Amino acid sequence: FRKAIKRACLVNAMSCPWMDKKAIIGREVAVATETTCGNLNAVENESYIQFELRMASRVTIVPSVAERTREKILSADEVYTTILTDANIKNAIEKLRDHGLVIIKGLLPPEQTIPWGNAVLEDFTSAVETLKNHQSRPVDLLNPDKGQFEPLSYKEMAMREDLRVDLRSGPSMEKLRSQENNLSAEVMAGSNVTDVGNQPTIITADTIGTSRCCWRYHPSILAVLKGLFNPRNDSLFMGNFGRWNFGGKGPDGSPQPFRLGQIGSVVSCPGSGDQAIHADTPHLFEHIDCHPCHYCNVFTPGYKVTDQTENPSVKNEFVD
Q: How far apart are CA 206 and CA 203, in angstroms?
């Protein structure tokens, strides 16, 4: 969920050109992984690329054929979306808690993600032209070294690095967002789900979700998030009397509500710089180094990935 492998290739093999991926991990770095990577700490004489491949393999879940053919989507005939078993939902939660990320292969069909990729590119192209032709402060996003002005962070778009942006909204994205949210509300009638513009949606314990019309409400994603955000101790939850307040049902141990954001995008153009180490939000507390998860990103490619080698034995999450 936190990250996703976009194509069949060596993990991170093309980024960080200053780094020798085949170099053996030094003792000092290896010792550091013992406290930061849990049971994925580096082993003796292991290279950086070997460590990354082993780590990616450990956090990957490959759903069964039965899971991948459990439910059809509405927008295309004979196209299925993956519905995880309870065992794999639990597996995903454990990997997220242990390692901070999980990779779920083939969870979403391209018929549900490509429309978003197309909408994003339409709005990105429009934003590039609008900024380039601005009368008082023209910005050339595609040629950052040539423009007179540096790009800023805008309401609809924020800069990550040169040639890499967060695009949160635009005419095409908002149109698709409205269509999918309205259709989801119809399909999930009775779930008390309300979408207002670009605001987050409150997901309660009773919200099951649907994978038939919009991947944002995918039931497996919601199930993983409910479990992830609500670690439970059976000897303590009955004392959480505050759950009677604000219309609550009391300390019944059910998952507490969380906010589900609207779909946004990260657009990386050819030649974009490696993103600097950063944090999306500040830590809630600073006295311990690992809190229960309270913030999670879900990434999926917005385009259909093809294998350039035309090797039928090499597949990606869209064609598996």
A: 8
Q: Which of 153, 159, 259, 257 is nearest to 199 (CA)?
A: 259
| Residues 265/167, Cβ–Cβ less than 8 Å | yes
CA distance 101 to 103: 7
Q: Return the structure tokens found at 100.
A: 């901070």
For 238, the 3-state DSSP assignment is: helix
pTM, rounded to two decimals? 0.85
Spell out the per-residue pLDDT of the chain, length 320, in tens: 443 333 334 444 555 666 677 888 887 777 776 666 666 677 888 888 888 888 899 999 999 999 999 888 877 778 899 999 999 999 999 999 988 899 999 999 999 999 999 999 999 999 999 999 999 999 999 998 887 898 888 889 999 888 999 999 999 999 999 999 988 888 887 677 777 778 899 999 999 898 888 899 999 999 999 999 999 889 999 999 999 998 888 999 999 999 999 999 999 998 887 777 778 788 888 888 777 888 999 999 998 766 554 444 333 333 33
- Tell me 313's DSSP state: T
CA torsion sign for 19, 17, 305, 279 is: positive
